Amino acid sequence: MIHDAEGRVLVVRKQGTTRFMQPGGKPEAGENAAQTLARELDEELGLKVAEECLRPLGRFVSAAANEPGHRVVADAFALTIDAADVTVQAEIAELRWITPADVNTLPLAPLSLEHLLPLAWPGEPA
Predict the structure, then answer these.
(1) Is residue 126 part of a domain?
(2) Residues 67, 23, 76, 26: is their CA dihedral positive or negative?
(3) pLDDT digits (tens, 9 = 90+) for 49-88
(4) Are the C-beta atoms of 8 and 97 separated by less than 8 Å?
(5) Are 41 and 47 in contact (CB under 8 A)?
């Protein structure tokens, strides 16, 4: 979960999909969760992140956004950056910086709605 100084949260939409979600992806052989996220952030957003800058949030399970009938198990981390530090790359079609007011206006992934955005904005309705 990536925040900016204004408290907005970054969500992305991958090519050929309709739902927005937090950036990240599947691990390659031998990678731990932090290494996977650092690699994915570089590939998807051009964001260079040291693993020690990632704050672990925990492991979450939810319905997969783009694979009906499947579940996703995600090791999530938090990071605060300058919004200008990211650009759409690789398989990313679109990115948005959202606030709690945007939650009901975008098609969001179940993992984001059920687990991550409530952590971003405690006490806000999702």
Answers:
(1) no
(2) positive
(3) 999 999 999 999 999 998 889 999 999 999 999 988 899 9
(4) yes
(5) yes
The tokens describing 88, both together, are 């759409």
Residue 95 located in a structural domain: yes
Q: With H, G, I as helix, E, B as strand and everything else as coil, classify residue 92.
A: strand
Does some domain include residue 125?
no
CATH code (residue 69): 3.90.79.10
Which residues face 21 on adjacent strands?
12
Contact 102, 96 (CB under 8 A): yes
CB 4 within 8 A of CB 81: yes
pTM for the model stands at: 0.92
The whole domain housing 57 covers 2-120
d(CA 108, CA 13): 9
Number of structural domains (the chain) is: 1
Within a domain: 112: yes
Give CA–CA dist 18/7, Å, rounded.
Answer: 24
